[in-house]
Amino acid sequence: MFVIIGFIIVIVAVIGGYLLEHGNLSVLFQPVEILIIGGAAVGGFLISNPLKIIKTTMASIMSIFTGTAYSKGDYIDALMLLNGVFYKIRQQGLVSIESDVDSPETSALFSNYPKMLKNSRAICLITDTLRTVMTTTIATHELEALIDTELETYHEEILQPSKAVNFVADALPGLGIVAAVLGIVLTMGKMKEPPDVLGQSIGAALVGTFLGVLLCYGFVGPMGRNLEHATDEKMQYLNVLKVALIAFLGGSAPKVAVEFGRRVVPTNVQPSFVEVEETLRQRK
To answer: In Å, what is the CA distance from 121 to each residue of 77, 181, 222, 234?
Structure first.
């Protein structure tokens, strides 16, 4: 929603300011300039990225408009799920959660949180960590290092869409200059035309530079930055799970491990201690 509002503000501010200075709007409408810049940008995007990243980038761009930020409720659900898992392990032992870990979609513990079940990366982090503990004698510090390595790899993977978009954004001013130069080349062939015709031709050529810079700093660049923020949010969410898991597997009581996780939730969506306690009482 805010992305669309931002687009509208950019357009209104730029075009509105131009019209207030009595600019001729028809001069800015140059379909050929748009074809040159847009086509070259799309072509460069396809050249610089493999098919996997192209698909991921397109899906990520669509997610910008749907708003997929983690809410306070999402973090509370994550903490409640971990609390349930921890209490079951504490009361019945690690073996008791083997069926839950093997089939989380049919598990009584996991099925209470359908929205979280759709987050395959989060579920895999929980289940793979518990499988590792059940089947090995790995030390807590080694387990933490293993998870950190996994998260670093995942971070690099989900950064690819923002890098791809930022690459296009960086190229747009240069492509705008290309379009402008081509326009000047065409203008040079009209040197015998009257000044008003030359002026229109030069103005049309300069629109290429205008479009390239506007698209870079007004639209595509901010979209790339938005994708970076989305990446950071995904990593923050997984970090909460990691901290709580390591705390519990290191010997902390279930409620203490949940509190470890709560403390690293981003401040703007962090549930209070009282909110977590109240939710725990309601779901017992």
So the answer is: 15, 48, 26, 10
